[in-house]
Amino acid sequence: QVHLQQWGAGLLKPSETLSLTCAVYGGSFSDHHWSWIRQPPGKGLEWIGEIKNDGRSTYSPSLKSRVSILRYASTSQITLKLRSVTAADAAVYYCANLRGRSLWGQGTLVTVSS
Amino acid sequence: DTQVTQSPSSLSASVGDRVTITCQASEHMSVYVNWYQQKPGTTPKLVIYDASNLETGAPSRFSGSGSGTDFSFTITSLQPEDAATYYCQQYASLPFSFGQGTKLEIK
Predict the structure, then answer these.
(1) Are A89 and B21 a contacting pair, CB within 8 Å?
(2) In angstroms, rounded to a whole number, what is the distance separating the alpha carbons of residues B89 and A69?
(3) What is the rounded CA–CA span in Å between residue A52 and residue B94?
(4) Interior angle at CA A50, CA A49 and CA A54, nearest 5
(5) Contacts of A107 in chain B (CB under 8 A)
(6) pLDDT tens digits, residue range A27-64?
(7) DSSP B56
(8) Chain A contact for B96, CB < 8 A?
(9) Residues near A105 by Cβ (< 8 Å), separated by ≥ 6?
């Protein structure tokens, strides 16, 4: 059974870089494309970007200038980096495979405060 | 970019009622639509994939239909535990997008 586990710093100061990691356990890492999604408190779901199994990434136009998603096949992990965070980036961040029978990580709450 | 318009934004219904939520896409999406249920403080839970396939473990009172640009999610015989927010999500083309969400309240 495939399982996603994510981790990373939960408290950032404005202008810092958000960095999260998502590990895929139980196989099939290379069979899927992996996305990051976020959800601000009390709001809806926002897609951040996807990295395909060939390493190509596509990002949300609204975040493209600040975001990067990488994959590491040797460890079955993907990472999210979001530069120059502000209070508007405070949210629960999820990793997931969104195509078809999607699988989600448990979510990581990120707070931005000086 | 494909825009997804979900309606209604909120809904109140009684136990036993039939409720339907719709999503309309700005471009053709074939059947590449998922539906999720999210309860407060929890991760979105997949209930329908590929527009009409019931995810394992999801109640059989849940169903999805549609193709192209118009999709719907229906709950027949509403139960108290169905109170949640429901989202559609398209994966036909990048960038992916989610509907705005429908908050379902049980009267």
Answers:
(1) no
(2) 21
(3) 11
(4) 145
(5) 43
(6) 789 989 999 999 999 999 999 999 999 999 999 999 99
(7) T
(8) yes
(9) A4, A5, A6, A22, A94, A95, A96, B43
Q: Do A100 and B44 touch (CB under 8 A)?
A: no
DSSP state for residue A33 in the 8-state scheme: -
Q: Which three-class secondary structure string do you get for A39-67? A: ECCCCCCEEEEEECCCCCEEECCCCCCCE
Interface check for B44 against chain A (CB to CB < 8 A): the answer is: yes
Total length of chain B: 107
**In the prediction, which pLDDT does B1 show?**
87
Shortest CB distance from B95 goes to which of A45, A47, A104? A47
Q: Are A103 and A82 in contact (CB under 8 A)?
A: no
Residues 69-108 of A with CB under 8 A from B: 94, 98-102, 104-107
